[in-house]
């Protein structure tokens, strides 16, 4: 069992993920796992399953980070969308243009969300606020879709990890059963 825990640790720390999220083991991790396998094919298979589970955990962690990032972005877009709605109401109620907050300007500039620069200021009338809200709502829809996709990737990585762990457990159990039967017959 200690070998399997060591294999899991080696696989987790020795996993690298490319930009597409494909997991692979470093050369050093591969060499360590091969050295652990020995002659028993059941133990070798269990170690490979545990290594796959370790890779799955690394993919899960990356998928969760992506989910957190998209969730944070969605919250920020939503915050500025609500702020734009308030500013638009204020502009309509007061029948005069209202200013964008510096935070909203920075967010829009950073994320390439267009807004009116008419008058060379950050002041908007009701229609200009509507245009900005439309752009923010569009971004919010994209962020919502990204969140769903990141959540689905996380769920799939968790299932893959669970499956690999279960295969390792089944393999160890089968190995134990085989040796138990052999011991009884000898």
Could you explain how this protein is built, in words?
The protein has 186 residues and is mainly α. It is built from 5 helices and 4 strands. The protein has helices at residues 2-13, 27-37, 41-94, 102-110, 126-185; strands spanning 15-17, 23-25, 98-99, 123-124. The strands form 2 sheets. Strands 1-2 form a two-stranded antiparallel ribbon. A two-stranded antiparallel ribbon has the order 3-4. The longest helix is centred in the C-terminal third of the chain and has 60 residues, at 126-185. The chain is rod-shaped, with a radius of gyration of 27 Å. The two termini are 25 Å apart. The relative contact order is 0.13. The mean pLDDT is 83.
């Amino acid at each position: 069992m200690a070998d399997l825990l060591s294999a899991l640790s080696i696989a987790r720390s020795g996993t690298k993920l490319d930009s597409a999220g494909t997991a692979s083991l470093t050369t050093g991790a591969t060499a360590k796992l091969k050295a652990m396998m020995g002659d028993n094919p059941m133990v070798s298979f269990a170690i490979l399953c545990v290594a796959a589970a370790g890779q799955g955990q690394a993919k899960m962690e990356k998928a969760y980070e992506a989910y957190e990032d998209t969730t944070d972005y969605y919250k920020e877009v939503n915050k500025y969308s609500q702020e734009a709605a308030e500013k638009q109401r204020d502009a309509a109620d007061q029948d005069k243009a209202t200013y964008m907050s510096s935070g909203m300007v920075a967010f829009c500039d950073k994320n390439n969300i267009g807004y009116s620069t008419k008058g060379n200021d950050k002041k908007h009338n009701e229609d200009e606020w509507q245009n900005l809200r439309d752009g923010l709502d569009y971004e919010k829809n994209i962020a919502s879709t990204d969140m769903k996709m990141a959540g689905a990737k996380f769920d799939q990585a968790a299932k893959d990890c669970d499956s690999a762990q279960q295969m390792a457990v089944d393999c160890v159990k089968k190995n134990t059963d085989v040796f138990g039967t052999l011991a009884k017959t000898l």
